[in-house]
Design a protein that fits this description.
Number of strands: 0
Largest sheet: none
Shape: globular
Number of domains: 2
Structural class: mainly alpha
Number of helices: 11
Length: 258
């Protein structure tokens, strides 16, 4: 077999311009800036490539994207975990690029949401709150993912008749959380230019989007009941995190506070 008919990537026969086994282009061009840009844009910036289809699909039909992935199609969309970490990385880079302090951003969001720290807090309580805020600032990427396991857990109970296992329930929430991080990125930009109140709007938009995604994924026909159920699911997950946080705070006081 002539050497030029062998795919340079997978080693299979490739008589045409592209390998029929792996899709590798068989014409080797010298590397130039134009070549690098064309490769990047074709894979990430195009509206009809995997990244573009995922963005478009999650914006209009997130439930369909998740169900397509669960049903075994791993080619059409970026996987949920990869998408989640991709967007969260872009979010962290946005903080760095705009020189926005994560702690100041979180504190501003709390202020606009009306979260007020009680003045009667003791010195130890204030120290704990400061340490918690510092931890959240240092681990903001992970904090934004905290809802996923609890949403999946309660969904497995609420929607047990759908036949999904725990990981399959998690898929929709990975996609939804990853996509809502684009809204967080917008909030970071708005905070930078002096519109900190925008984070409050982003919170409500994110909740509406999550409910929209849940309705589509579980194919709920009774919309009003479905919205209430999805909202209760979100509240229950939030309460679960709060309770675990209180248990953690209590353990912190017992261990570290004399």
């Amino acid at each position: 077999m002539p050497e030029e008919n062998i795919c340079i990537n997978c080693g299979n026969e490739a008589p045409g311009e592209y390998c029929t086994h792996c899709g590798q282009h068989q014409t080797v061009r010298p590397l130039t800036w134009k070549e690098l840009f064309l490769e990047f844009s074709s894979k990430w910036l195009g509206w009809d490539n995997k990244f573009g289809r995922t963005i478009r699909g999650l914006t209009t039909s997130p439930g369909l994207v998740a169900r397509t992935y669960i049903q075994g199609n791993r080619v059409k969309y970026i996987g949920p975990l990869a998408y989640l970490f991709l967007v969260s990385t872009i979010m962290i880079l946005t903080f760095e690029f705009l020189n926005v302090d994560v702690k100041e951003f979180l504190q501003s969001s709390q202020d606009y949401m009306g979260v007020v720290q009680p003045e009667q807090n003791t010195e130890d309580q204030q120290k704990f709150m400061t340490n918690m805020m510092d931890w959240m600032s240092d681990n903001f990427r992970w904090v934004s993912l905290m809802f996923i396991p609890f949403l999946a857990l309660w969904s497995k109970l609420f929607y047990r008749k759908r036949g999904f296992n725990y990981i399959e329930h998690s898929v929709i929430y990975m996609y939804l959380t990853g996509h809502t991080l684009w809204l967080t990125i917008i909030a970071i930009v708005m905070f930078k230019i002096g519109f900190g109140w925008f984070s409050l709007l982003i919170t409500f938009l994110s909740l509406i989007y999550i409910i929209f995604g849940v309705l589509g994924f579980y194919q709920i026909k009774q919309k009003i009941l479905g919205v209430l159920k999805a909202l209760f699911l979100w509240i229950l997950s939030y309460i679960t995190i709060i309770l675990l946080g209180m248990i953690g705070a209590f353990a912190y006081v017992l261990i570290f506070v004399e």
